Request: fold
Amino acid sequence: MSTHINDTADLQAISRKRDVRRKTIPALAQAGPVSVWMILFVTLPMLFIIYISFMSRGVFGDVVYEFSTESYQTLLDATYFKVILKSLQVALFTTVLCLLLGYPFAYYIARKPPETASRLIMLIMIPFWTNSLMRLNSWLLLFQTSGPVNNFLQWAGIVDAPITFVYTDGLVVLGMITNMLPFAVLPLYSSIEKLQKSLLEASSDLGATPRETFFRVTLPLTFPGIFSAVILVFIPSLGIYTVSDMLGGGKVLYIGNIIKNQFGAIRNWPLGAALSVLLLVITGALIFLYTRFAKLEDMEVV
Amino acid sequence: MANLTKVQRRRKTLGVLGDLYAILIYTVLYIPVVVMMIFSFNDQRYNYYWSGFTTQWYGKLFGNHALMDSLWYSIVIAVLATVISVVVGTLGALGLKRYEFRMKKFINGMIFIPIIVPEIVLAVALLIIFMNVGFALGMGSILIGHCTFCIPYAVVTIKGRISGDGNTLEEASMDLGANRIQTFCRVTLPSIMPGVMSAAFLSFTLSIDDVVMSNMLSGAKNTTLPVLILSMNKSGVTPDVNALTTIMILVIVACMLLSNAVKAALRKRSQAA
Reply:
């Protein structure tokens, strides 16, 4: 009897050992590096930035390690609050326009045969392999006060004097939209492409007009794609500072520019951290909404 | 009958409208690239307006040391970031797809953070950590920053290519006497190769075009090409940068076409065999 128990114990020990060899070691070797990297360079920095946001700024731009909500109160000051509102506005406007422009475009591509569609998608990607700052710089060149667009407008007699486009919010928004459009088109395309044609046919067979079919079948079924597009356009637009730097010439300031400045010349880390936490909270809220009706893993990010 | 032609006519008009719309969108997407290329031939030191055709910048750009140094710096970082991201990403994708472990859900969540959260937040967070532990800013810090957003993209790209049918092929290979490393090189890797290749391409393009991370994490001395361009913006980007970017995009597109041609040829061969 006792040997029998010993046998099972031995067997268990052996199988545990085999499990370690067969599963634990490869699992550690494979998932280990990525886990360590993510914890060291994502989790820790994120926790630390939240911590810093509750500290305060010393006289010489150093961080005073004492709990305070000073930075968050500063965010409510008129100057900063205005910047936050304006950034939200611009990001929202960019998102809506990218959706309105991107949806018909994605629909157009998704209705093409697969070979053509993948070529058309490739054609969207190619411009984005050009340095993004140089593409923005092109808009600046086109819209200079003495640039081609103003020359044309004057030549055509549409305006008498050149219009100042450069360093305005309008040009920044144009830059945003052209930079963000693919991030709207790609998720929209993949959700429209998955849409089964039979459902649309059924809808029209049952007497729905094309318009009814669109609003009651197509649009609801492609909603996950629409929401992915919203996330992939709205969140980056909210934090981006390169577009406003290139096209706004330092005169157009959004949240991203303010954060950057706090870690540069101005040196107010807690304030910059508090603004970053604000961006994190907005991102978190949108992601939470998204997970209510779709799985995060299904989001088409690439 | 008349009704049918009406529907057909309507479809045709919609088709033409669709084509026109697509052409319009593509035009808007390509205008910046074309303008960028045109201005690389601009005969003026400061690229504000057009003042005549020249090809001098294509020769002169190699004499611009600041530009060449930053290009080299960018390329070295992009290559290293690609190698690290692809290795960590490939292993990670396999591990996260095939094994169950306690932290799995948490790690999967962490992977989405660099993809979704605005880059400036991650850059600033890394900067604070580096400053606090006294890690000197420079190539190392930029490299870590780039890998931190390239690895997640690599994991997601490769994970999509791993088949859902478990590791039956691997088990067969091991039963037939191959060891774990042989199995990985001869069975696992070839099956996910397309994903690994697109992850490499994505990592390289993300790294070489990155501004935000490099700008926050570069030290006082050297910097990457995009950061140099950003700093030129106030005084005007000079045409030699346009020339360099034109060459770069042509090289990238050529590589793309070449790799597509090779892929097509390989497919043909495997079909013939």
